Prior knowledge:
Layout: E1 3-6, H1 21-29, E2 33-36, H2 48-53, E3 57-58, E4 66-68, H3 75-80, E5 86-89, H4 97-105, E6 109-112, H5 127-146, E7 154-156, E8 159-161, E9 165-169, H6 173-184, E10 188-192, H7 199-204, E11 208-209, H8 228-242, E12 247-250, H9 265-270, E13 276-279, E14 296-299, E15 302-305, H10 315-333, E16 334-335, E17 338-339, H11 346-351, E18 352-354
Parallel strand pairs: 1-2, 1-4, 2-3, 4-5, 5-6, 9-10, 9-12, 10-11, 12-13, 13-15
Antiparallel strand pairs: 6-18, 7-8, 14-15, 16-17
Amino acid sequence: MTLIGVPRETADGERRVALVPKIVERLRALGLEVVVESGAGDGAMITDQDYELAGATIGDPWPADVVVKVNPPTADETSLLKPGSVLIGFLAPRSQPDVVERLRLANVTAFAVEAIPRISRAQVMDALSSQANVAGYKSVLLAASESTRFFPMMTTAAGTVKPATLLVLGVGVAGLQALATAKRLGAKPTGYDVRPEVADQVRSVGAQWLDLGIDAAGEGGYARELTDAERAQQQTALEQAITKFDIVITTALVPGRPAPRLVTAAAVEGMKPGSVVIDLAGETGGNCELTEPGQTVVRHGVTIASPLNLPATMPEHASELYAKNVTALLELLITDGALAPDFDDEVVAASCVTREGVN
């Protein structure tokens, strides 16, 4: 019988856990055993007893046949994995290749959830999207908290206050959720992306579309890197547009490359004092020239915040969504209670970053 291990996450500020009790019940029904490290669910408000009631045992997860994590394993954690085992989690194969190399040397077969292809049948496994939804939602709440202005229009005996204007740069999953959340809070949201085909998605959540006349659609639903001429055109147009907004939320990423700079120092200087920039691309350098990843700073009277792990600040629902993603992948890898991954399967092949000691 296959044993699934769930360790406690050790990264600074991480409160998520890879599996939740509801999912443990589902795995047990499939004939799988689950062992959870004591305290693994504490950050997500899940007790050891909750796991035990769902059918898991509390113990050492590292000798398990399959270990499921949220963050990449440290060197010490990798040494605890048994040779021939399987690891599933965010493994950062592009930005932290040393993680994959350690797993290869440890003879571990590893599946990176961020490498799962964006195809229809893999949507339920798409952990990048599930966690981006959380980040997009929370980014707007953070912006509202940092702002010196109301989000909705307020009509009072003292007069009427106009709603805040909000611009989202980069309209992927996080960007769309940010636009939708801002609309629900009463702001006037506008979206911009170098992929003009997402304009209809922007309008579908009640936001306006900012058209700068640039088309840089790339593969896999991501934007390609801009040419020098396109970058100069975009920078000039954005510098003028950004100054008209109270809130700017940036989410733009290019896989395998530093985040594109969209908000220049000049654009920040042109914003009204009390305005806010929330930069969700801090882990890859940031979309704002004045961003300090992981910090909140004030420049030219504008607050610039670059949180590095917003999903971890909403650990209950973030863990629940992530657990569903991981379980969908597990169900693809396991047949009749035993590990039997089909490496000819598109999803399995794309997400596997090392296989029994081979990259």
